[in-house]
Design brief:
Length: 299
């Protein structure tokens, strides 16, 4: 038994049926036409295929780069094939995390197939791999192929408002808004005050607010369409917070009555928290505070 390697010409005629003769003999043979004395000659039909004529498959980019549960499709394009046998059993999902989907294939002809991923769920990434041999031309078949992956995100952003805190009282008509958003897939944020959208971001002051109860909400929608929202109900009380405690209460009314009676209170006094534009403490301040505490007014 004899074995060996056959080296083909460096520049053979491509895509054409050729004859290749393999000869072996005890004696040296001068040419391919020599007659072997103690050996044999065998002829083989060969075709040297150029890359442009080999069956090929290419998978398109996913129809979406990120989704929550919306369908995502791919297109498998075939070249130099006579037959396409691709079905769902030839496709495997490349998954990370908890992401998952169902796979279906549609289309006819010998150029392409549509691949649909539906029922998408979980969090992570998804892509596909197509097995070898789904396209053929004679005895030649396509190699396997792998797609790019896309992101699956079904987790809503977590929004937190730290200022103004819920159920708090502030003595500032333009309180600072401080919030945070926990989200890996970015998106857009909307801020509303009393139902009206405002152009305020975290760290900036809210627009001018009247004294009274207000509500601020912050919603964030990520790139997959998931939404997180937080809200805070707070009271602006620039009038009546005489001792600057952050609340308007009976102690403020008592301080006003002490001052009107000629008694100097122990607490420091915020004269800008009175009704009179001249910062004079008057009986109307005590009336206002008592009404506010009783819930008879919120502005």
């Amino acid at each position: 038994v004899h074995s060996g390697m056959i080296t083909t010409p460096q520049a053979p005629v491509m895509d054409t049926l050729l004859r290749m003769r393999v000869m072996s003999d005890l004696n040296t043979m001068a040419t391919a036409c020599s007659a072997p004395e103690y050996g044999q000659a065998e002829d083989y039909s060969v075709i040297f295929k150029s890359p442009a004529s080999v069956p090929q498959i290419e998978i398109s980019a996913p129809s979406a780069t990120i989704t929550a549960n919306g369908d995502v499709s791919f297109t498998a394009t075939y070249t130099n094939v006579d037959t396409i046998s691709l079905d769902a059993n030839d496709i495997s999902l490349n998954r990370t995390g908890t992401a998952d989907a169902s796979v279906s294939v549609s289309g006819t002809g010998n150029t392409s197939r549509s691949i649909l991923l539906s029922g998408i769920q979980g969090d992570g990434t998804l892509g596909i791999s197509i097995a070898a041999g789904t396209g053929s031309s004679g005895a030649e078949t396509t190699d396997g192929a792998t797609s790019d992956a896309f992101t699956v995100d079904n987790t809503a952003p977590i929004v937190t408002i730290s200022s103004p805190a819920d159920n708090s009282t502030v003595n500032d008509n333009t309180p600072a808004l401080v919030y945070s958003v926990a989200e890996t897939n970015s998106g857009s944020t909307t801020v509303q005050v009393d139902g009206q959208t405002v152009n305020t971001v975290s760290g900036q002051s809210l627009p001018q607010l009247s004294d009274g109860v207000h509500n601020v909400s912050v919603s964030h929608t990520d790139l997959a369409g998931n939404q997180g929202i937080a809200s805070s109900s707070f009271t602006v009380a620039t009038i009546g917070d005489i001792d600057e405690s952050g609340t308007v209460d009976l102690k403020d009314a008592l301080i006003v009555l002490q001052i009107l009676a000629g008694i100097t209170p122990a607490e420091s006094i915020n004269t800008s928290a009175v009704i009179d534009s001249g910062n004079r403490i008057m009986m109307q301040d005590a009336v206002y505070i008592l009404q506010f505490v009783a819930g008879m007014r919120n502005s």
